[in-house]
């Protein structure tokens, strides 16, 4: 039993009140609080929940392979570079597809695996959130939209991949990449300096 | 004929302009994207000042054909969009990207920022964007240095990158080039008038630019909801629709509803805070729709803590009056079907305490009242916490949780069976039966916090718990008031409500005269006890009906199975208790463990109810129970349905109801279900909208809040062109018909 921080005990008591009164505290996810729980199947048929991530940090990447903003980061090997870096640091990387069936970016498990192979991507798993429940729980609004969770399951970063909202590959060079920043701070066990930024990209196709 | 001459001149100029347009160099298209794939951003070739892509046509237009050095000239970048496609405002909202302009200008010429016409909100599933459909106009001013040699043309080059979206998004770009002629004096510049079509576009762009707000704007970005308050002076009267567009991401939740109301000298919008409300400038654009048309203002609000305002448009309810209402409401709560049985049980306990001293009685009464008040305090605090957490908590919301309903049904069933004598309920269980006797064993005046005291306290809390969902008349107004007040006033109102509820029993406990007139204990008490089980069973039946509304047949089956397991477990316990004396210990223990497993299984089943909650449950009153021969046909309430009916000038009657609301059901039977009312509705073609609050629904909560209410029933009649009229919470057919006939267009 780890000691419960003040923040999480407040969250827990709020959750308890919510439970008691049967209210859904449909609050947006909050940095410093427990990340929203989810239960989503990956392309291999495994079910992932927040509990699976306990013990090591995790990065959630909302993606849609047809979105020009996503293509920018994959065509430049920028997203794959971050995925490999996360793997080296033993950080779980989950690519989440919340496109509803029939909407742009919706893929079968097989197509998702082919995309991963063809783009040399290296996520730990690709989650297929067809219902959009996980996306809505996190308030994922764009592709890409990045969420980073620490080893205790607390949300430590949410927002854009970097600070240059464009589809232009040339903008990757010289941009402040927030995922790099958080990974470096995690490795150095330093506090996270930037925790909320504006996500940019295409809208998630719920 | 100077007039004819002028006309001919005009015609010649027109002809020239058209020839120029027709024979402009051909345009190269941007590569069309393969289906579902975005193209790499591709520049469309230059055609002077027009770029055509499959999704829009972009033009760069100067307002005049010449500019005087030292002066300014306005340029307009126009996107004519294909149907269904949109581009973005400076804050694109949840996704997307505004157009980016990069100018290449000679030394001495500078371009200002884009001046943006007000945007519209574009819903995308659960998200929202800010942008433009059909046509997007971007106005930019160029300043020319006074030293620029008159007569030398100004080469203007513009590189634009934009994102254009339908469901999916395509990044595009285009280059534009213009040569601006210069003139030494203004008269020469205006001697060549621009094209009249261009003039119209410039006029449209300027008309849609937000004006500076001529009013004070205050914002409290730390609050939830995030309050934006504008002084009403300077704002037009008769605002029908209002929308606030934040300048930057992070201030507000773009897709959230923005309920607003007029309060005294202020207009107040309730916004949902975004991810970083405190670190974003509190500025944006307000767009109002009035009968005269659409107006837009831009402003930067001053940040300050805002206390809730009294609702000046509703009859103001002062604190003393609210407290009086609360007390009255609390008294009435005692007569509610969901609390009366508990009181009856208490009265039974009271009948057993005839030989108690005044002090012990007072102590008992005090503890009972404390139980009631502690529950109300907890509820009040929870309500305030939830209010702070932004959850629209309404009175009676516990009964919106199927799990809670099922647990209450189980509790009442067990209590009823206990009264029936099916099993002996321990005195630990809410002080039933034995509570009074235990208290009697205390010497009068010797006060200890023992099981009896706990029992009295527990009964109070239980009574309060089951009474809460019954919104009695008077209560709606008092609570609506409480929730708009600072925390201490809100708590005072809620506690007074509790006091009103505890008072009758407390008085009954303390007044010996009353106690003396109670009959002597005897066999009748056992019968009475059994008789009192029936209201409890009735409550169980009612709760199961509510549950069926919430969770459907499968939920009901689940709960009935759980109740079976629960009763079976208690029967096992009773068996072990009564027959277990001569048994071997292991046997008895095994039976008890089995009983425990059975009860736990029941609880496990009930917990599973939460995902079964059926938001599409039929409204109360469409069920069998409220069937009547004159059932008005109701459409489900939605803000959109209400709005469109009002736009068509159709009268609307809104009924906010819930399956667990007794008052609502009574009203629907005795008033709304009568032939008289049905006729009145039919004659005026009144649209009957019914909102079902059986399960929590934020849209209905927001509607109730707009009328300062926290519970159902709420009846509102909208006569065409008049202010909405709120009807009383207890209806008669005459009241409803009167409302329909007397409300006329006086509100405007």
From TrEMBL, chain A:
<dbReference type="InterPro" id="IPR047262">
    <property type="entry name" value="PRX-like1"/>
</dbReference>
<dbReference type="InterPro" id="IPR013766">
    <property type="entry name" value="Thioredoxin_domain"/>
</dbReference>
<keyword id="KW-0732">Signal</keyword>
<feature type="domain" description="Thioredoxin">
    <location>
        <begin position="29"/>
        <end position="184"/>
    </location>
</feature>
<protein>
    <submittedName>
        <fullName>AhpC/TSA family protein</fullName>
    </submittedName>
</protein>
<feature type="signal peptide">
    <location>
        <begin position="1"/>
        <end position="28"/>
    </location>
</feature>
<dbReference type="Pfam" id="PF00578">
    <property type="entry name" value="AhpC-TSA"/>
</dbReference>
<dbReference type="InterPro" id="IPR000866">
    <property type="entry name" value="AhpC/TSA"/>
</dbReference>
<dbReference type="InterPro" id="IPR036249">
    <property type="entry name" value="Thioredoxin-like_sf"/>
</dbReference>
């Amino acid at each position: 039993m780890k000691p419960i921080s003040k923040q999480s005990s407040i969250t827990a008591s709020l959750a308890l009140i919510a439970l008691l009164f049967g209210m859904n505290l449909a609050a947006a996810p909050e940095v410093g609080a427990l990340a929203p729980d989810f239960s989503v199947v990956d392309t291999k048929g495994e079910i992932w929940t927040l509990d699976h991530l306990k013990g090591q940090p995790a990065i959630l990447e909302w993606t849609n392979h047809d979105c020009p903003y996503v293509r920018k980061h994959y065509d430049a090997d920028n997203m794959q570079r971050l995925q490999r870096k996360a793997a080296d640091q033993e950080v779980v990387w989950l690519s989440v597809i919340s496109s509803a069936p029939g909407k742009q970016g919706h893929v079968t498990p097989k197509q998702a695996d082919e995309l991963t192979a063809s783009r040399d991507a290296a996520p730990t798993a690709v989650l297929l959130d067809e219902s959009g429940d996980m996306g809505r729980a996190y308030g994922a609004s764009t592709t890409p939209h990045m969420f980073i969770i620490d080893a205790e399951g607390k949300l430590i970063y949410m927002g854009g991949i970097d600070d240059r909202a464009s589809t232009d590959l040339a903008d990757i060079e010289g941009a402040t990449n927030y995922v790099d920043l958080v990974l470096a701070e995690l490795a150095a066990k330093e506090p996270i300096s930037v925790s909320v930024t504006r996500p940019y990209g295409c809208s998630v196709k719920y | 004929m100077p007039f004819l001459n002028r006309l001919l001149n005009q015609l010649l100029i027109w002809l020239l302009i058209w020839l120029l347009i027709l024979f402009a160099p051909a345009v190269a298209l941007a590569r069309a994207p393969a289906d579902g794939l975005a193209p790499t951003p591709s520049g469309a070739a230059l055609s002077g000042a027009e770029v055509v892509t499959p999704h829009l046509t972009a033009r760069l237009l100067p307002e005049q054909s010449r500019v005087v050095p030292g002066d300014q000239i306005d340029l307009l970048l126009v996107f004519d969009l294909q149907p269904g496609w949109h581009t973005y405002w400076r804050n694109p909202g949840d996704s997307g990207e505004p157009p980016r302009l990069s100018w290449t200008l000679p030394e001495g010429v500078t371009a200002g920022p884009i001046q943006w016409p007000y945007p519209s909100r574009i819903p995308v599933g659960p998200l929202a964007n800010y942008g433009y459909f059909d046509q997007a106009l971007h106005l930019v001013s160029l300043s020319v240095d006074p030293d620029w040699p008159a007569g030398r043309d100004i080469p203007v080059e513009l590189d634009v990158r934009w994102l254009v979206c339908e469901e999916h998004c395509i990044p595009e770009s285009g280059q534009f080039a213009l040569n601006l002629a210069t003139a030494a004096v203004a008269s020469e510049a205006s001697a060549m008038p621009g094209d009249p079509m261009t003039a119209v576009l410039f006029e449209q762009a300027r008309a849609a630019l937000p004006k500076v707000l001529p009013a004070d704007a205050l914002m409290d970005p730390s609050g939830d909801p995030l309050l934006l308050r504008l002084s009403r002076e300077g704002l037009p009267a008769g605002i029908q629709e209002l929308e606030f567009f934040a300048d930057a991401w992070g201030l507000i939740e773009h897709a959230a509803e923005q309920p607003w109301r007029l309060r005294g000298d202020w207009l107040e919008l309730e916004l949902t805070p975004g991810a970083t409300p405190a670190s974003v400038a509190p500025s944006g654009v307000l767009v109002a729709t009035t009968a005269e048309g659409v107006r837009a203002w831009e402003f930067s609000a001053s940040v300050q803590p805002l206390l809730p305002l009294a609702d000046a448009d509703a009859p103001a309810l002062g604190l003393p009056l609210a407290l009086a209402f609360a007390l009255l409401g609390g008294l009435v709560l005692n007569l509610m079907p969901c609390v009366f049985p508990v009181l009856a049980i208490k009265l039974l306990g009271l009948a057993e305490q005839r030989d108690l001293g005044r002090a012990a009685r007072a102590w008992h009464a005090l503890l009972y009242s404390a139980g009631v008040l502690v529950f109300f305090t907890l509820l009040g605090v929870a309500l305030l916490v939830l209010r702070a957490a932004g959850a629209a908590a309404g009175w009676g919301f516990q009964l919106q949780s199927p799990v809670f309903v099922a647990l209450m049904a189980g509790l009442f069933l067990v209590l009823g069976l206990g009264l029936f004598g099916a099993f002996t309920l321990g005195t630990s269980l809410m002080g039933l039966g034995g509570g009074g006797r235990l208290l009697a064993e205390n010497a009068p005046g010797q006060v200890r916090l023992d099981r009896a005291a706990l029992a009295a306290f527990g009964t109070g809390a239980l009574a309060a718990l089951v009474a809460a969902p019954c919104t009695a008349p008077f209560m709606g107004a008092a609570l609506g008031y409480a929730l708009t007040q600072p925390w201490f006033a809100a708590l005072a109102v809620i506690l007074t409500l509790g006091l009103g509820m505890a008072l009758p029993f407390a008085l009954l406990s303390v007044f010996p005269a009353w106690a003396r007139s109670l009959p002597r204990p005897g066999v009748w008490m056992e019968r009475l006890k059994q008789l009192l089980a029936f209201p409890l069973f009735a409550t169980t039946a009612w709760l199961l009906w509510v549950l069926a509304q919430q969770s459907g047949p499968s939920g009901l089956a689940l709960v009935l199975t759980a109740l079976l397991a629960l009763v079976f477990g208690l029967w096992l316990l009773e068996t072990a208790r009564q027959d277990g004396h001569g048994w071997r210990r292991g046997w008895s223990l095994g039976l008890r463990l089995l009983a425990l497993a059975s009860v736990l299984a029941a609880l496990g089943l009930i917990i599973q109810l939460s995902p079964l909650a059926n938001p599409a449950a039929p409204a109360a009153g469409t069920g069998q129970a409220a069937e009547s021969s004159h059932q008005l046909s109701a459409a489900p309430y939605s803000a959109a349905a209400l709005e469109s009916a009002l736009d068509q000038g159709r009268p609307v009657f809104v009924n906010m109801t819930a399956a667990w609301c007794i008052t609502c059901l009574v009203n629907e039977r005795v008033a709304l279900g009568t032939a008289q009312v049905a006729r009145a509705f039919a004659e005026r073609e009144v649209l009957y909208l019914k909102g079902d609050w059986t399960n929590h629904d934020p849209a209905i909560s927001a509607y109730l809040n707009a009328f300062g209410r926290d519970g159902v029933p709420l009846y509102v009649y909208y006569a065409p062109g008049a202010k909405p009229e709120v009807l009383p919470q207890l209806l008669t057919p005459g009241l409803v018909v009167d409302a329909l006939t007397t409300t006329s267009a006086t509100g405007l």
